TrEMBL record:
Involved in the partitioning of the mitochondrial organelle and mitochondrial DNA (mtDNA) inheritance. SUPFAM superfamilies: Tubulin nucleotide-binding domain-like (SSF52490). This is Tubulin nucleotide-binding domain-like protein. Its main location: mitochondrion. Belongs to the misato family. The keyword Mitochondrion applies. The lineage of its organism: Eukaryota, Fungi, Dikarya, Ascomycota, Pezizomycotina. One of its GO terms (biological process) is mitochondrion organization.
């Protein structure tokens, strides 16, 4: 068994994590005559015993959020809560006078959660009803999975949790008081027979980047040989809009602060992690088959979850035959980090046409079908102005390695997709390609928003994936020189906006990342200089 522990750091990360766990829960099969799921649930779920003595199965995850971020979700859920005597009162102890108890008003669960609790068919979710990530959560968590940080309030305007330094200081303060790895992480780690790695979901442009950086450093000190895959969430849409219109000085200042926070996060996390993937909605327009509201976290995180869940699918399958170097987190990182200095990968995805006879629409190479969910090759200057989709001077990119997972129910089309994907352009013939092909398509469950056009939805049939509608998806992680212009633009902001005490160290780190993507590449790297 090769277990993976997940860290979810921040409200944005918890939206993505909730979609991820809802999908994992849909892979369980309960009918006696149902075929066993191809997913090995022990990788991401831990067995336990509930309050009634019954067997439980809860995610191997730690969920950190600020005060007010958990919505209506209880820390002690139905699997573990004890029946309490309402007349028992509160022990008085040495105090025999009256007491006044003040409680903060509870967040009432929405209709969707109430129907789940009563076992009725779930009510329909709509954008107006989703206020928190817990509103569309379908999974019971272990009580020790949820950790609320009461030092800061969610969306506070008085003390916003925005600066990298705030997150770093908060972790260190809590770690001195409690030793967070001992208090939170070790319980889950010691239950693992052979932990293959840790996946970290975190915001990268605010204080959670600082919190995550210290957390990853503590993990690396304690588990020096364990693979760590970090997904750094960013709001690419905000940056894109800043490049298209003249923004106010306040927005410019906020964007610069986000970029500085990102620079600190990259400098701290990338050297310690096995693989770092920037993650966010694309800057360019979506393909025609994607219909989402970019202002809704429920929508954006759903789109991201399809790609994240797909490209990591081989790490949790029972039969990893054919997965090759994609079957374990460390193997995946080794495939993509070809020369030892390429720890930043970009993510892209294609959702195939549901019609098996659709001509060539399922192939990732068709223009407009595949879209990126990470940095493109463009950069941004200190004012947030776009430098162009191909870098400062329009250079072509160099691909080092690609890891692709193709989920396609139609065997003929699956072979076509795989064959097309293997035809790399002549100027990328040296790229390393790892691919896993499976007929296990992505389930579209009731907690998933309606963000894809009907021509992409495969109707439900039988008991496959719980009888849900499905998606045929290709997702790929790529290490390439496309990240160089973005790293250069971040470094440019650092050179102007970071204090002299820390400027040199961060700039040197970013310079080393850039150099890692220039290694063994024959193009003139000076072309990318500012």
């Amino acid at each position: 068994m090769h277990e993976i522990i997940t860290l979810q750091l921040g409200h944005q990360a918890n939206y993505l994590g909730t979609h991820f766990w809802n999908t994992q829960e849909s892979y369980f099969t309960y009918a006696e005559d149902a075929s066993p799921s191809p997913v090995d649930h022990n990788v991401h779920f831990r067995p336990g015993v509930g309050v009634d003595g019954g067997e439980t199965f809860t995610p191997r995850t730690l969920i950190y959020d600020l005060k007010g971020g958990f919505g209506s979700m209880k820390k002690i859920n139905a699997l573990y809560e004890m029946a309490q005597d309402s007349d028992a009162g509160i022990p008085q102890g040495l105090w025999d006078k009256g007491m006044t108890i003040q409680r903060e008003p509870l967040v009432e669960p929405i209709e969707y959660q109430r129907t789940l609790d009563t076992g009725l068919p779930p009510a329909r979710l709509d954008p107006e009803s989703v206020r928190y990530w817990s509103d569309f959560n379908k999974v019971f968590y272990h009580p020790r999975s949820s950790i609320q940080l009461n030092q800061y309030d969610l969306s506070s305007e008085i003390m916003p949790f925005e600066s990298f330094g705030l997150g770093r200081d908060l972790f260190n303060r809590l770690n001195r008081e409690h030793d967070l790895l001992d208090r939170d992480f070790r319980l889950f780690a010691e239950e693992c027979d052979q932990m293959q790695g840790v996946q970290v979901l975190t915001s990268a442009e605010d204080a959670w980047g600082g919190f995550a950086s210290e957390y990853v450093a503590a993990l690396r000190d304690e588990y020096s040989k364990t693979g760590i895959m970090t997904w750094g969430l960013q709001d690419f849409g905000r940056v894109a809009r800043a490049g298209k219109v003249r923004v106010t000085e306040l927005k410019q200042e906020k964007q610069i602060n986000h970029t500085v926070n990102l620079a600190y996060t990259l400098s701290s996390i990338v050297p310690l992690t096995s693989l770092y993937i920037p993650l966010g909605c694309p800057q360019s327009e979506f393909p025609g088959y994607v219909n989402l509201d970019p202002t809704l976290q429920w929508h954006k995180s759903a789109l991201l979850s399809v790609a994240v869940e797909t490209c990591t699918l081989p790490t949790r399958l029972r039969n990893t035959f054919g997965a090759g170097r994609l079957g374990k987190l460390d193997d995946l990182a080794s495939l993509l980090n070809l020369n030892g200095g390429q720890k930043i990968a970009t993510l892209s995805m294609t959702v195939h046409n549901a019609n098996p006879s659709a001509s060539r629409l399922s192939k990732p190479s068709v223009p407009g079908e595949e879209f990126g969910l990470s940095w493109d090759s463009g950069g941004y200057d200190v004012n947030g102005t776009a430098m162009g989709a191909r870098g400062a001077r329009g250079q072509e990119s160099h691909i080092f390695a690609i890891a692709e997972v193709v989920r396609e129910s139609n065997d003929d089309r699956a072979r076509d997709v795989a064959a097309e994907a293997s035809r790399l352009p002549d100027d990328h013939h040296e790229a390393i390609l790892g691919r896993y092909l499976t007929s296990f398509t992505y389930p579209v469950i009731d907690s998933f928003p309606n963000i894809f056009s009907t021509d992409r939805i495969i109707p439900a049939e039988g008991t496959t994936a719980g009888g849900n509608q499905r998606l045929s998806v290709s997702a790929r992680l790529t290490t390439s020189s496309q990240v160089i212009p973005r790293l250069k633009s971040i470094k440019n902001v650092v050179s102007r906006m970071v204090g002299v005490d820390e400027r040199e160290a961060i700039s040197n780190d970013l310079g080393e990342f850039i150099e890692g993507f220039e290694t063994r590449w024959n193009s003139d790297s000076d072309d990318y200089d500012d």
